[in-house]
Specification:
Number of strands: 16
Organism: Billgrantia tianxiuensis
Strand content: 15-25%
Mean pLDDT: 93
Number of helices: 11
GO molecular function: oxidoreductase activity
Keywords: Oxidoreductase
Protein name: FAD-binding oxidoreductase
Pfam family, one: DAO
Number of domains: 1
CATH architecture: 3-Layer(bba) Sandwich
Structural class: alpha/beta
Radius of gyration: 21 Å
Order of helices and strands: HEHEHHEHEEHEEEEHEHEEEHEEEHH
Shape: globular
């Protein structure tokens, strides 16, 4: 039984259309205006702005560009803010909370405009997102939040009662839900490949498989040591997120890499896809360890993702957990084979907010908390404007103090299995309450 459910491939489904490859080796520049650590969405978006402003820019990636989260994520343009409005207001004040939420809208609009203006071929579709409620009590709370979101930001957002749920998703697992129409889907590996193409054309030099080992002050600039040699840089921007390593120990103590895994089904019959996902929307749900899922861009498969509590290797258990979640929501998929199962790291911090901050002259653009498709290009772009000291672009709401450090943590997330077990217990309690 278990062998039948193991996926055929352990590489991302997205790589079928946009394989991730190393770039040809290039010689190091002795001096740069800006050196960027990381060549994912954030690093390339920043490099593009800087190169077009006339700066000499090089981005260094420890892997092939895009091999990390930029080509492994679910391709949902959520731009989620994990703390709710009440939590943001309590922590930062009402004004800051409103600014953070408003910037989420700006960031999505920026991404959509960027895709159109730069003619990025990444299968983007503005489909909307349905979020399922676990029980009637949660439905009422979500319905109020949808109404408040529409009033505060003018986003098309509304509740879907259980009686109308099947118009949006072919399951009775939820007790209604909400829809917001400003979220869509794309192929994340294609988005990165297109962003890389545009950045290279603008003059950004990208070094693949060239890790940075240290960043040190050197007069008015920095001396950056890489496996290929040393570079003098006037400014340094770090955009490593879930793949942060020992080169930036200050950041490493503040970001926790968390595995997220995604499975993809084999191609399904058109009539089955029409029953299960009649509007081809992106999907989420109101659980701490809830799944996110969606149709593939061609509408032939279902992709489902969630947290992976394993820490080493590529064990079968997390794949089987996702398969069970898929079948619980869509029982008719029980005998459907999985074509792909893969994982990648997202980066969480104690505030659960993206961040731009400066420490000892180095600028950081990071902490996307599982929503990097929207946040990484936006935060990278805003960081670039900060380096340029551009008066045309106001300060980002995410440009403030660094995330707090995590006690007893030096980069090894030894505590994550226990954290995930705790979240799982909360979800079991929520499911029990919903079933009463």
């Amino acid at each position: 039984m278990h062998e039948r459910n193991i996926a055929e491939q352990s590489t991302p489904f997205w790589w079928e259309a946009a394989p991730v490859k190393p770039l040809p080796q290039q010689s190091l520049a002795k001096e740069l205006d800006v050196l960027i650590v990381g060549a994912g969405y954030a690093g390339l978006a920043a490099g593009l702005v800087l190169a077009r402003a006339g700066r000499s820019v090089a981005a260094f990636d420890a892997m092939s560009p895009g091999e990390g989260a930029s080509s492994r994520n679910g391709g949902i343009t959520s731009g989620s803010i994990r703390p709710d409005h009440a939590t943001l207001s309590r922590r930062f004040g009402e004004k800051k909370a409103l600014a953070i939420e408003a910037e989420g809208k700006l960031a999505r609009e920026f991404l959509y405009d960027f895709i159109e203006v730069e003619r990025l071929d990444c299968d983007f579709q503005l489909t909307g997102l349905f979020r399922g409620a676990i029980g009637h009590e949660q439905y009422e709370s979500m319905a109020r939040s949808a109404e408040a979101l529409a009033k505060r930001l003018g986003i098309e957002s509304y509740a879907v009662p259980h009686t109308e749920q099947r118009h949006y998703i072919g399951t009775d697992f939820y007790r209604g839900g909400t829809v917001r129409m400003d979220i869509g889907g794309l192929n994340p590996a294609k988005l990165h490949a297109e962003l890389l193409r545009v950045a290279l054309a603008a003059g950004v030099t990208v070094h693949s498989n060239t890790s940075v080992s240290s960043i040190a002050r050197d007069g008015s600039g920095f001396r950056v040591t890489t496996v290929a040699g040393t570079v003098q840089a006037r400014q340094v921007l770090v955009c490593t997120n879930g793949y942060t390593d020992g080169a930036t120990p200050y950041l490493r103590r503040r970001l926790v890499p968390v595995r997220s895994r995604i499975i993809a089904t084999e191609e399904l019959a058109p009539e089955m896809m029409a029953r299960l996902m009649p509007k081809r929307m992106m999907m989420g749900e109101g659980l701490q360890l809830g799944f996110y899922y969606r149709p593939s861009p061609d509408g032939r498969r279902i992709l489902l993702g969630g947290r992976d509590s394993s820490r080493v290797g590529d064990p079968a258990a997390p794949t089987l957990r996702l398969h069970k979640g898929l079948v619980t929501r869509f029982p008719e998929l029980e005998n459907v084979r999985l074509s792909h199962s893969w994982f990648g790291n997202v980066a969480m911090n104690r505030d659960m907010l993206p961040r731009i901050f400066e420490k000892d002259g180095v600028l950081y653009a990071t902490g996307f908390c599982g929503s990097g498709v929207v946040w990484a290009p936006w935060v990278g772009t805003r960081a670039a404007h900060k380096l340029l000291r551009s008066s045309e672009h106001p300060c980002s709401a995410f440009d403030f103090r660094p995330p707090a450090f995590i006690p007893l943590y030096r980069g090894n997330p030894w505590f994550m299995p226990a954290v995930i077990q705790g979240y799982g217990m909360q979800d079991r309690i929520a499911m029990w309450r919903a079933s009463r």
